[in-house]
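Schema walk-through. Below, the input block comes first and the output block second. Nothing else is stored per chain. Lengths vary across the set, and this one has 258 residues.
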Amino acid sequence: MLDIVNIAHPAFIVLGAYVAWFANHAIGADPIVTALVLSPAFFVVGQAVYRIYHVSFERHGQESLRGLAFFFGILFITEVALSLAFGVDYRLVTTSYSAVTWRLGVVDLPLRLVLPFAVSLAMTLGLHLLLSRTFFGRALSAVSQDPLALQLMGVDPQRIRERAFALSFATAGMAGAFLVIIQPVQPSMGRGYIGLGFAIAVLGGMGSIAGTLLGALVLGMAETLVTTFLGPSWAPAVSFGLLILALVFRPAGLLGRA
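--- output ---
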């Protein structure tokens, strides 16, 4: 929606995971509490990153290629900094509920998976309401469609873009705090989420929060089923195969505007 190809986004998810691990290791803080604390901190970091990006590239109309290189640099700087600070070993947070499993008939629901899933649904619903029911959401849609008209209404498009970009960082920090409960993390694992993130956004429909959720569920279930029955090496091929089919028959995405 902002026309910003932020390939460094997964790096901040991993950063959030390491902050949650460090808080748990140092003072025993639960990752859920850390996630709540991380949100405003990552929001401020997101504002700072966007201002650097805007002043250096966007204001001069150089955001297409040089801006992409800027986010590549942030991705690798974050990865190297985490490697130097924590090493390349995998880190995992074990909580009091990590070993708790709810059983519904023949279905086992590990609480370490149920909690992040519930939080992700709540975050998705909250973002959907924010973008569809508030002035900020309407202004953000206007920024992606006609920023000049937004300026004529007395709203600064740059300020809206800055807040939206910072909001993406806040959600990334929260995601990382819950990711370290689900699975072990290490500094370079964010690279694997770059292609998957873009695939989910395109499959669901650009600018559609509900479509993003649907695209994530479709790709996630496809990868899980293929991994279970055919092996993990086939999972990426099948997932991106579904993406190609969707683009052929539904270029706007599953819930995007045709």
